[in-house]
Amino acid sequence: MPITVSEKAMPLKQIATPFRRWLCLVLAAAIIFGLFYPGGQPFAAGLFPEPWDKPTHFAVYAMITYLLYVGSAGAWPLLLIVAVGAIGALDEWHQIFVPGRSASLMDLLTDVIASICVIMLYQCSATRLAETPGGHNC
């Protein structure tokens, strides 16, 4: 059965089943674990050299944000941005203690910008789906 416009415009908490929400939260936790455990090993130093470290940061933190956003059914988007920023800050602090790695405020800024972009894109696209044809809210 094809999806109608009204079904597309449904809020995230109605579309995301409990299983999908839990799956997203588990995947986000796995990515975060990957930042701190394998990312804390000496082989991780220089894995993504300049300038490729910034797009990598953006992609990883955008994915974490998206998974947490779906996992929380879109609740508290500003708190989510702060939480993802805190994860980024902890990651940068953690890197100080890893041989061959260093902390960077630009990496942290990239993490926060990725989080903001994901939230804004999702909310903007949800607004466009919910509006009448021909209107523009974004």
TrEMBL record:
Keywords, alphabetical: Membrane, Transmembrane, Transmembrane helix
Transmembrane domains' residue ranges: 21-38, 58-90
Organism: Georgfuchsia toluolica
Protein name: VanZ-like domain-containing protein
